[in-house]
Amino acid sequence: MDNLKIVIMDVDGVLTDGKIILDANGIESKAFYVQDGTAITYLHRAGIKTAIISGRESKVVELRAKELSIEDVYLGIHKKLDAYEKILKKHNIKDNEICYIGDDLIDLPILRRVGFSVGVPGAPSEVKESVSYITDAPGGYGAVREVTEKILKSQGKWNAIISRYYS
C-alpha cells in the first residue's frame, strides 16, 4: 500500500448502498455518505488521485464527482477494463500503484490486476475470494473512508491529515 497513487471506485454498492431510487418522472436519486466524500478529499490532500468507473450512466454521480473534484469519471462502462487502461495510460501508473474498490462480478477483471483490491461486505463470494481486503463498513456507509484511513496510515500520511484539526 505504500506505493499507491490512485484509488479507483465503483459507485453503486461502494460509494452508495446500491439502491437506485427513481421517482414517478424517472428522476434518479442516490444517497452518498458524507464521510466517504471527506475521505476522497483527504486522499487528494495526500497527493493520491481518485477515479470512478461505473457500469451505469448517472447525472447524480457526475454532480457528486464534480463536487469532490474527481477528475477521471467513466460512466456507463460495461467493460471496465477499457476505462481502467485509459487511467493507467493517462497517469502513467502501473497496476501495483492502484487501489480498486468494487462490489460485484463486473469488477473482477480490475480487482485481479491491482496492487490493493478491496471488496465490501455485500459483495458476492467470488469478489470476496479475489480481493486483498474486505471492509467492515458496507458500501455507502463508510467503506471508502475505511480504505482511505488504511492507505493513509500505511503511507504515514494520516497524521498530517488530522493535525489540522488539533491546532
From TrEMBL:
Keywords: Hydrolase, Magnesium, Metal-binding. Substrate binds at residue 12. Mg(2+) binds at residues 10, 103. InterPro entries: CMP-NeuNAc_synthase, HAD-like_sf, HAD-SF_hydro_IIIA, HAD_sf, KdsC_fam. One of its GO terms (molecular function) is metal ion binding. Belongs to the KdsC family. This is 3-deoxy-D-manno-octulosonate 8-phosphate phosphatase. Its cofactor is Mg(2+). The keyword Metal-binding applies. Homotetramer.
